[in-house]
Each structure stands twice: as structure tokens, then as C-alpha cells.
Amino acid sequence: MKMRVLLSGLLSSLLLCGVVVANDYVSNGGVASLRGDTELNTQNSAAGLKSVVEQDKPYDADYVFQPPLIPHQIRHYEMSLNANKCLSCHSWKNARESGATKISVTHYEARDGQVLADVSPRRYFCLQCHVPQNEAAPLIENEYERVESLR
Ligand code: HEC
Ligand code: HEC
């Protein structure tokens, strides 16, 4: 029974795809989004690589408990199951020699608060939270301000 529901779902989504693909031109109705006014079935050309701001001092935080912004280039830094380039400088073991800031104790805590002997899996993919910066105009105007206590 479940299988039949699954199959019919699959079939109808395939049919739907067929209809969309058969159409050469899918209009976005003149509505522009963050990807511009590129039509729905056309691939937007990729944005050029951004130049990352590099500076010697850390960025000021905008709110308490903010993951600090990355003040250096990270291009070609491998992050995979076998290697984590960030930890080659930022782990407690390597930080002294590399001169990088140590990852904080929170990076060793598992979800249930247990403190692990090595970086916690939920803190392994650094770029989930830490990002380098680029001098760019905001995509959308906003009036965000740093919290009072950090101004
Ligand atoms: C070659 C060593 C090295 C590697 C690799 C490296 N960093 Fe760094 N990082 C540093 C140093 C040194 C600093 C101190 C600030 C400076 O001088 O740029 C720093 C600063 C930082 C900061 C700011 C800390 C603060 O207190 O504000 C963050 C966040 C950071 N790095 C994240 C990363 C992430 C994420 C990666 C991997 C994508 C990474 N770093 C890879 C050396 C490194
Ligand atoms: C889930 C989000 C998250 C991930 C993933 C994460 N961090 Fe962080 N990081 C934070 C937050 C939040 C802070 C600031 C509060 C704190 O220290 O916990 C921080 C703080 C830091 C600091 C500054 C420590 C200090 O004492 O000032 C460094 C350096 C850092 N992280 C590096 C890393 C590196 C390298 C990785 C990957 C191995 C990583 N982080 C993964 C959220 C994250």
C-alpha cells in the first residue's frame, strides 16, 4: 500500500517535471528576486569570486555570543571527513604554534552538554557559523545596529 502511494507520487512528480521541461520558456511573470529577473528555467550566470577582506586584528562583535567573523583568506582550505584545515591552526594543540585564536571550550561540547576530548561534531564544519568578509553593498537595505553594550 505504502509502496503504491510512493510510486504514484513519483510518477506524478515525473509527469510534472515533463511538463515543465517540455515548455521552452517559463516566465517569472516579470518578478525580480535575489537572482535578478532571470527566467525560472534559465541558469543565472555565477557571480564572480569575491575578494576577501584580510586584516590583522579581529572584527568587533555585533552581539554577544556572535561567532567571530574570519579576518583572513580561506580559499582552498580543505574541510572534509579526513582533513580540517582550520583546526591545523585553531585547535588547542596547534594554536600556540600558529598564533591563531584557540577555538573556545564550547566547541568541545556535545549536544547534551557533555565535554568531549576533541572538537564536537556539531562544531566541525566551521563555515556553518564563521564567515570571511567582503566589501559589498547589502543585498537588501536594513537598519541593523550593534547591540548597545558592545557599541
Ligand atoms: C594558517 C593558519 C590558519 C588557518 C589554516 C586558519 N586560520 Fe583562522 N586565524 C588565524 C590567525 C593567525 C588568526 C588571528 C587573526 C589574524 O591575524 O588574522 C585567525 C583568526 C580567525 C578568526 C577570528 C577569531 C577572533 O577572535 O575574532 C576566526 C573566526 C577564524 N580565524 C576562523 C578560521 C576558520 C573557520 C578557518 C578555516 C576555514 C581558519 N580560521 C583557518 C590562522 C589560521
Ligand atoms: C555552530 C556554530 C559554530 C561552529 C560550527 C563553529 N563555531 Fe567557532 N564559535 C561559535 C560561536 C557562537 C563563538 C563565540 C562564542 C563561543 O566562544 O562559543 C565561536 C568562537 C570561535 C573562536 C573565538 C574563540 C575565542 O576565544 O574568542 C574561534 C577562533 C572559533 N570559534 C573557531 C572555530 C573553528 C576553527 C571552527 C571549526 C572547527 C568553529 N569555530 C566552528 C560558533 C561556531
Descriptive account of the structure:
It is a single chain. By secondary structure, this protein is mainly alpha-helical. It has a domain at 50-136: Orthogonal Bundle (Flavocytochrome C3, Chain A, domain 2), CATH 1.10.1130. 21% of the residues lie in helices and 0% in strands. The protein is built from three helices and no strands. It has helices spanning 2-22, 87-90, 92-98. The radius of gyration is 23 Å and the shape is extended. The N and C termini lie far apart (61 Å). The model is unreliable at 18-23 (pLDDT under 50). The chain binds heme C (HEC) (2 copies). Residues 56, 58, 68, 70-72, 74, 77, 85-86, 88-90, 98-101, 126-127, 130 line the site of one heme C. It is found in: Periplasm. Residues 1-22 form the signal peptide. Its main location: periplasm. One of its GO terms (biological process) is anaerobic respiration. One of its GO terms (molecular function) is metal ion binding.
The assigned structural class equals: mainly alpha
Percent in strands: under 5%
Total strands: the figure is: 0
Kindly state the mean pLDDT as a whole number? 85
The main pleated sheet reads as: none
Q: In terms of quaternary structure, what is this?
A: single chain
Low-confidence stretches: 18-23
The first-level CATH class of the domain at 50-136 is given as Mainly Alpha
Shape: extended
Give the termini distance in whole angstroms.
61 Å
Give Rg in angstroms.
23 Å
**What small molecules are bound in this structure?**
heme C
InterPro entries: Multihaem_cyt_sf, NapB
Family: Belongs to the NapB family.
Organism: Agarivorans albus MKT 106
Keywords: Electron transport, Heme, Iron, Metal-binding, Periplasm, Signal, Transport
